[in-house]
Design brief:
The protein has 110 residues and is mostly beta strands. The protein is built from one helix and seven strands. It has a five-stranded mixed beta sheet with strand order 3-7-6-5-4. The protein has a two-stranded antiparallel sheet with strand order 1-2. A hairpin with a 2-residue loop joins strand 1 and strand 2. The chain is flat. The relative contact order is 0.21.
Length: 110
């Protein structure tokens, strides 16, 4: 079950103080799955040597689709010119899973 919690920050300096409350969502496992399916994105341009995210919330992400990006998100291929690729991010969390496929342009390393 999703919930909202309030975090309070307080700062004091030279006799002055301020307090600020922040309300943040805490997502359940199914809420994290839904959030991944609706919100997870990857930059549309990446380069050799970049690393794609391997976690989202409490879950993990692996990648499949092109040999230019390893399962752990490392863009390791040395390429001479830019390449368009389709990649799938696979999210897993305690038996729950989802996938998002995206198009990316992989640029050669500088």
């Amino acid at each position: 079950r999703d919930a909202k919690v309030t975090l309070t920050a307080q700062v004091s300096l030279d006799g002055y103080s301020a307090t600020k409350d922040f309300t943040v969502p805490v997502l359940s496992q199914s809420g994290q799955l839904d959030s991944f399916k609706e919100n997870f994105i990857v930059k549309s341009y990446i380069a050799a040597g970049d690393k794609l995210p391997v976690s989202y919330g409490s879950g993990s992400i692996s990648y499949s689709g092109t040999d230019l990006i390893s399962g752990d998100g490392a863009v390791s291929a040395e390429i001479a010119e830019a390449v368009n690729a389709e990649e799938t991010a696979n999210f897993t969390l305690n038996g729950l899973s989802a996938a998002r496929t995206f198009n990316v342009r992989i640029l050669p390393k500088d």
